[in-house]
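Re: that chain you flagged

S.,

Sorry for the slow reply, it's been a week of failed gels. I finally had a moment to sit down with the sequence you sent. For the record, here it is as I used it:
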Amino acid sequence: VILDTHCINKDVALKLKKVNFFMGTIRIIIWHLIENYMCQNSSKIIVVSDKDKRFIINNYRINSSKIDMLPNEVGPANFDKFQKSASLLRHKYSNEVPKCKKIAIFLGDLGAIHNKQAENFIRLKLAPYTPEVLYLFVGNNPANLNSINNILYTGFVEFVDPYIMLADICIAP
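Prediction finished late last night. Pasting the structure tokens below so you have them in one place:
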């Protein structure tokens, strides 16, 4: 069994306790029980930061050899390799929506609930009020959302580097 976690919920609950003592305390108890059980019964644990790794070791008494850290990040773009394709893509998208002066990209799988919520916010609340910005959603689009006005969807791309390079604004949750 492999536990792959993007955050330590007990750590989140400890922060919540400072804002709402009752809810934070309840969540601390619940998440301690769940996460302790999962950590103790997993053959391997994958975390996204050294902070999470230390938290698990200190709070659940797990041997560090059982924990692997895989950072959850988008690294810097490979400028030398993707300079030409970034320039061609910027030209392509600038011509598709010529009224837009800036390009904002959103990197993420729109099948993930939090990314879908962010897309929904950008599409409904932000894009209509910023028509000079082209919002380019780069990543899996399982709902096959259609491009409209100043919003375009690329779907899955093999390399994100040229998209990062063409962007004036990059949103990478």
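What I noticed first: The mean pLDDT is 91.

Talk soon,
D.
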